[in-house]
Amino acid sequence: MDRDDAERPGWVRLPGDDDDTSHQRDAGPWRGAASPRAGGIRRLRRTSNWTAAALIAGMAAATGYFAHHTQPAAPAVSTVTGAAPGVGSTAGPGKPHLSGPVATSTGSGVVVTTGPGGVKTYHYRDN
Amino acid sequence: MAAARYLAMQRTWRLIDAGARTVGVAERAALGTSARVAAWPAHQLARVLAVVDTELALLDQQASRFRPDSEISAVCRGADGAQGGGSRIVSEGLAEAIAVALAAARWTGGLVDPTVANALCSLGYDRDFAAIRGDGAVPRGPAHVPGWQSVRLDGRRLRLAAGTGLDLGATAKGLGADRAAREAAAAVPAGGILVSLGGDIAVAGEAPVGGWPVLVADEPEPVGQPPAPGGRPAQFQPRSRGQVVRLAAGALATSSILCRQWRRGGRTLHHIVDPRTGLPAAGPWRTVSVAAANCAEANAASTAAIIAGDQAPAWLAAQGLPARLVARDGNVWLVGGWPAIDEGLLDPPSTCRMPAGPGPVPGAAALAVPAAVDRSSPPGLARRSAGRTPPGPRRSPGARRWR
């Protein structure tokens, strides 16, 4: 903010370190009490800014931590044999996230299965 | 461990590693192809499999033309034997399956026609695919296709013109996937279901985060000989790479001329018959995948696209159906908002495009253009004019080449 802003109609300059005497002169009848009150406001404003910044940073860190480390409250019973641990995960209350295809849409008769290590096997299933 | 107990009891399903513990996946042979079911939470898999078993058994009993004791076989035998055709009351399930087939015929201007059964039989596909002999004599010629107008369905009363055979292959698997997914979702309190019948996929309930990941593949090519019935599965290698898409709602179906091939008189035939010629479709597409509100519609659209040839991209785009078309040269064309990236979300229309009842269908006439094959030519596959090079796909509004 330029120093000239204080001269614009409708603008009120808040007290700060760079206050000059002309600004204090404009304080009018409040001139005698302006200095300690302005200093208090300035300290309070700085404290509020730092508090807000700390809260934002803390919330962001906590959100990131919980997003990556939260375990399902009640893990579902595994009924899939040979499920690769860590490949899939859950997001939200039990809604799964699948990282690989569970089915193949192709012409009738061929099924693609994905085995350990991502090896795909094509089975002819006309039986 | 309910699913494991159910599987041990049934001895049909086998568990598949889905890579996520909260999702149960199982697979078994069914309807001349394979059925795959995925369900979450995984502990509901047993219940879901039981429902799917029931639906598959019903559909097989109603609509399989390879089972002499099926309802549709009995209906067609009646039409064969009766002078002037047959009339009978059919079950609600078969009536629904025939109604869907007739709706598909109307919607596609007759390109998907349930009366191609005799044509398929004349080409050699007269039994379960696994039982077709490796080669055979040259067919005498394309069989007459009576046309879907020769089938009358009034509620559960079915009337067939004399000599009319029914093959519901272009819609029945899709309908079966729809039925199974819907009934399974109704049988469990929460979660999501995916049912795939030979690659025709329907989902119901709540999808996993980001949708069900599905690999859309062009037909793999055999490395060795196809397996003997009952033998060990053969290994195949993909001819072209596929694409993983995510399906959160609706359905996805794929039709391909590269599967269900057999040989007659030294020629390779496939199972998608053009009802205008009575011969295997000879268009520019080898594989078409379509997403739609339900699987029967997706199945009908993908089959129609194979037969329609050059007109297919514009028709699919006009219907607002996301589609992926693989040309005979291996190039992939995307229309109707099909995602161009791997893991892209498929967004099929939430409402059906295929009209349920009779009446004029916008766009159907434009799709059913005259066939490329001259039927006046002497009969016999060796003399058909379809041996010419199929025309390359034309760029149509909304279509884009992918790779």
Describe this structure in words.
The complex is a heterodimer of chains A (about 130) and B (about 400). By secondary structure, chain A is α+β, with helices and mostly antiparallel strands. Chain A has a domain at about 5-70. Chain A has two helices and five strands, in the order H-H-E-E-E-E-E. Chain A has helices at about 20-25, 35-70; strands at about 90, 95, 105, 110-115, 120-125. Chain A has a two-stranded antiparallel sheet with strand order 1-2. Chain A has a two-stranded antiparallel sheet with strand order 4-5. In chain A, strand 4 (about 110-115) and strand 5 (about 120-125) form a beta hairpin. The longest helix of chain A has about 35 residues, at about 35-70. By secondary structure, chain B is of the alpha+beta class. Chain B folds into two domains: about 70-160, T-fold (Orthogonal Bundle); about 200-400, T-fold, CATH 3.10.520. Chain B contains nine helices and 22 strands. In chain B, the strands form six sheets. Chain B has a ten-stranded antiparallel sheet. A three-stranded antiparallel sheet of chain B has the order 4-6-5, with helices on one face. Chain B has a three-stranded mixed sheet with strand order 9-12-21, with no helix packed on it. The longest helix of chain B is centred in the N-terminal third of the chain and has 19 residues, at about 45-65. The termini of chain B are far apart. The model of chain B is unreliable at about 220-240 and about 370-400 (pLDDT under 50). Classes of the chains: A alpha+beta (about 130), B alpha+beta (about 400).
